[in-house]
Each structure stands twice: as C-alpha cells, then as structure tokens.
C-alpha cells in the first residue's frame, strides 16, 4: 500500500504529536521559522538532509518514516522535548546517551565530567 501522506503531512503530524510548534522546531534546528513553514505549506518539498536528520532527532521520530512514510513514526527511543534542550546538538547528545548501555553511559558521564573540569 502506498503512503498517501506527504513529507509536510508527516512533519505536521509529528509536531502535533509532540505538541511542538513549527517555530520551536525551527529554533531547535537553528533555522528560520519561515524555512519550516515553507515545508509545512508544501512550497518546499523537504528540509535539507542535515536539518531532516536533526528534526527527526529533536522530534524523536524515525528519519525513514519522515522522508518516505516507511515503518513506524516512533523509533525505539523516547523523544526529547524541545523545551528541555538548547539546540539540536544537545538533543543528539541526549539521544546518544539514552541509546547506550549502563557501562557506556557511566563512561560517557565520566568523560564529560573530565572535560568540564579540564575547562576550568
């Protein structure tokens, strides 16, 4: 069966599910609200590849689902609310941390603490 939803339909659905505004997504991606609006209105087919991946991470959705409608919208990991992260890189860091095993999380945290103390 062919998925009848367009990229903009899927983006709109994901934003609605996450209770996130297009302008909040734009802020998380570091792009203009107009760029996201163009995609949502269909005047631009998709986000750039980089922003597509970042949007998928910020929204906690499958990039494959967003681009093609394939599979499930939600991957195995929980989304990160946009209000709780400063930018897409921070959201990515949290997603990576969540995907690691307990020992790897402890190692990542120890490394981050080491970087923080070296900064002083």
Provide key terms for this protein.
120 residues; mainly alpha; 7 helices; elongated
Put the structure in a nutshell:
With 120 residues, this protein is mostly helical.
Give the arrangement of secondary structure elements.
Blueprint: H1 7-17, H2 22-29, H3 33-41, H4 49-59, H5 63-68, H6 88-99, H7 102-119
Task: Please provide a written account of the structure.
Helix content is 62%, strand content 0%. By secondary structure, the chain is mainly alpha-helical. It is elongated and about 50 Å long. The model has no long low-confidence stretch (mean pLDDT 82).
**Which structural class fits the helix and strand makeup?**
mainly alpha
* Beta-strand percentage range: under 5%
Helix content: 55-70%
Number of strands: 0
Low-confidence stretches: none
Averaged pLDDT: 82
Order of helices and strands: HHHHHHH
Rg estimate, integer Å = 16 Å
Q: Which geometry do the CA atoms define?
A: elongated
Amino- and carboxy-terminal Cα gap: 57 Å
Largest sheet: none
Please work out how many helical segments DSSP would assign.
7
